[in-house]
Specification:
The chain is α/β, with parallel strands linked by helices. It has a single domain, classed as Rossmann fold. The protein has eight helices and seven strands. The chain has a seven-stranded mixed sheet with strand order 3-2-1-4-5-7-6, sandwiched between helices. Helix 1 packs across helix 7, helix 2 packs parallel to helix 3 and helix 4 crosses helix 5.
């Protein structure tokens, strides 16, 4: 049985692609259309759509705007609505399993505790990528401990050239930093802006493969 996953605030489909690799049928929702997204997109307000239709899906992922939560780039980014509390409430009300993703600095749980909260902090080096790209994932279900990270090697940042000279030989010596970033993130279909904001698909593929399908199918 193929489970149907709703990808809220889907943008160009980084998170959704990981879930698709894990075997889910992905449907995205965003306030505008993103033709580069490889999955079907419904153009709608993500919070409103979740409230009205979230119960129609087996599991829901949400990546609300991160700019106003980011510690590193808050001063550079255009302020965006801080929607984590709003979308969490909407997700809980659906009664479905859910995941919320955001940057460090966002008010998300990133480890399981005795009070029923679940979450994880993922890094690109946990999955063999030459990027750090730390992201928080709060979930309504438990996850195993992720692989160990490795910060001892050079890693790349999309906003500067740090580390790219060490990485570009993997993908071709003539590639620009932006193209190397997209290739290392495994999001080569994306625009430059989309790749800067994306979640590496390997993160959500790992989450998707470690969801307990028996629990997700419980009424």
């Amino acid at each position: 049985m193929i489970l149907k996953l709703l990808d809220l605030f889907c943008c160009e489909g980084g998170a959704g692609t990981g879930y698709a690799r894990a075997g889910f049928h992905v449907v995205g929702v965003d306030i505008k259309n993103y033709p580069r997204n490889p999955h079907p997109i419904i153009v709608a307000d993500a919070v409103d759509y979740c409230r009205a239709h979230g119960h129609e899906y087996d599991i829901i992922h949400a990546s609300p705007p991160c700019q106003s939560y980011s510690r590193a780039f808050r001063h550079m980014a255009k302020p965006q609505p801080m929607l984590i509390d709003v979308i969490r409430k909407a997700l809980v009300e659906t009664g479905k399993p859910w995941i919320i993703e955001n940057v460090q600095g966002a008010p998300l749980t990133f480890e399981s505790d005795l009070f029923g909260a679940h979450g994880v902090l993922l890094c690109g080096t946990m999955f063999g990528l030459q990027i750090y790209r730390h992201r928080l994932f709060e979930t309504s279900f438990s996850l195993p401990y992720p692989p160990a990270h490795n910060h001892s090697k050079p890693a790349m940042n999309p906003f500067n050239n740090a580390g790219w000279h060490h990485i570009r030989t993997t993908h071709g010596i003539k590639h620009t930093p932006e193209k190397v970033w997209r290739l290392e993130m495994e999001v080569s279909w994306m625009s430059q802006k989309g790749a800067r904001e994306a979640v590496p698909p390997r993160y959500t593929e790992w989450i998707g493969r470690h969801c307990s399908l028996s629990k997700l199918l419980e009424p």
